[in-house]
């Protein structure tokens, strides 16, 4: 079925049908839904070249992906991409990955915008005063940031979780259980999410008259091996922690392995709280001791970023709105009161 046949069947003009399928805001929601349902039912697919000529849009969302020997593909990214891809597919959008060397990101952004390769982009793992956001603001391409930056002199659209609040509540719960030697095994300290998580832990400790000394804060890429090494370092100290807050389930795999090698029991000797991005293949309740977690779905975040990008392309959203999701604290068997005499 072509556009003309679809419009005749619906008794609508070809212009109205085309605008409904391409998300133009002047088409009311009932008409948009009626056209979309009919197109799906009869197998209508717009010709990509014709749609680009008619609308000036490619139907593609872009992501500039740093690659190279020093860059690991993060499982968090894969799960996020699954959520984004599911939503994009349902709205007939494609995702374009543009690999680039870490020091050539700016050149790659300029190229894909100049060549009109994509309609919009999303940015992940922002850092303070992130130069990518300054560039995208200057290039005037629709974008959404997954996470937040700090220290910029302009507002920008973003979706983030309340990292500071989540880790504040985790630390506060441990303090209520009598722990006064709490360690934080965090992500890389140049990323804003890790800064916010450290800030949340420090605020809770300060409110309880406690501190987070340098030797009980370890920041690194969130891998199993780094979690293991961090835990071994923590227990080389004289004032060993009685509780660990960990920024990732993947790091927590290493944390639990190290504690087992040190013959330390969870939670009798050490309490553990981890952050859980909700992975279908790695569940906190399936650890040897079910893990207490701060919990938020990264797949749902991916879908929401795609939804907001579609809204921006359809002119249903504009401006620089920030969106911060609350984080659940799910208590399981990995925490208990501080050991006697600790």
Automatic annotation (TrEMBL):
InterPro entries: HTH_LacI, LacI/GalR-like_sensor, Lambda_DNA-bd_dom_sf, Peripla_BP_I. The keyword Ribonucleoprotein does not apply. The keyword DNA-binding applies. Coiled coil: none annotated. Residues 1-55 form the HTH lacI-type domain. Keywords: DNA-binding, Transcription, Transcription regulation. Transmembrane segments: none annotated. GO terms for molecular function: DNA-binding transcription factor activity; transcription cis-regulatory region binding. This is Transcriptional regulator. It comes from Mesorhizobium hungaricum.
